[in-house]
Amino acid sequence: MQVSNLLSGKRGIIFGALDSNSIAWKVAEKCHEQGAKFTLTNAPVALRMGAINQLAEQCGSTVIPADATNMTDLDNLLQKSQEILGGKLDFILHSIGMSLNVRKNKPYTDLDYDYFQKTLDISGLSFHRVLQSAYKSEVMNKNGSILALSYIAAQKVFPFYNDMADAKALLESIARSFGYHFGKRDGVRVNTVSQSPTRTTAGSGVKGFDTLYDYANIISPLGNATAESCADFCVVMFSDLSRMITMQNIYHDGGYSSTGVSVELIDIMNK
Ligand SMILES: NC(=O)c1ccc[n+]([C@@H]2O[C@H](COP(=O)([O-])OP(=O)(O)OC[C@H]3O[C@@H](n4cnc5c(N)ncnc54)[C@H](O)[C@@H]3O)[C@@H](O)[C@H]2O)c1
Known about the structure:
The chain has a 6-stranded parallel beta sheet with strand order 2-1-3-4-5-6, with helices on both faces. Helix content is about 45%, strand content about 15%. The chain has a single domain (about 10-270), classed as NAD(P)-binding Rossmann-like Domain (Rossmann fold). The termini are far apart. By secondary structure, the chain is α/β, with parallel strands linked by helices. The longest helix has 24 residues, at about 115-135. Helix 7 links the parallel strand 4 and strand 5 (about 190-195). Nicotinamide-adenine-dinucleotide (NAD) binds near residues 42 and 97. Nicotinamide-adenine-dinucleotide binds near residues 43 and 98.
């Protein structure tokens, strides 16, 4: 794509790059290409896998461990990022999701409630924690942009998405609610991007993922959106080109969310 320096002079934090399939990994590469400076972060346990250091080297970034459910870690991350990057922040990507109920194959009608609380804490509430920490410490520049990644199971039922659906509904609601306060006080924008099924560690953990992926692909007039195209869109959302968009859940899904049925699906059903 022929755009350059869309994020020149901007500073940020990118959560959630686990390996080169991660959506956050692609976002980091694109932000780097577009001239941004940022720190990378992930849970200490994920950092032990080591892949993120390769990305950090590629992007000239520092890696700062933070468990997104721990306020001390988050406060430290925000403060250190400002010090390292040399000023206030312009963007943050929250790209975090995990459910022990999904991992352990607990069906939605037989959830373990300790796991459920963890799902909500890691995949939903952590966004509030990041926003609250950023709001209180006043780390964001005016017109800054904060994004989290969501999925359409927040609006429609996908039985195997399990308690992650409730976490995504919470995540999207937090973006709206906090977006009001952050917008009023600091002109900072808060949005969620609802992405197509994507082959990553978190995505592939959902039961029946391959079928879900193929189904979405034949329903969507443009086909499934790739992680790369999602990263391009995140760059636009971090740039000043999207400066009047806030408190939205934006579908980045090739048209899936607005399509009832496709000719291809009817053809398959008729066979
Ligand atoms: N893959 C898909 O099909 C898809 C579709 C729509 C939305 N999303 C969302 O995109 C985001 C990124 O997921 P992905 O698909 O790139 O998978 P991924 O597995 O690469 O990323 C998930 C990340 O969450 C991190 N994480 C888990 N617990 C954490 C904690 N306590 N503190 C900090 N980080 C923690 C993991 O270490 C990992 O880096 C998630 O919010 C996911 O729900 C994914």
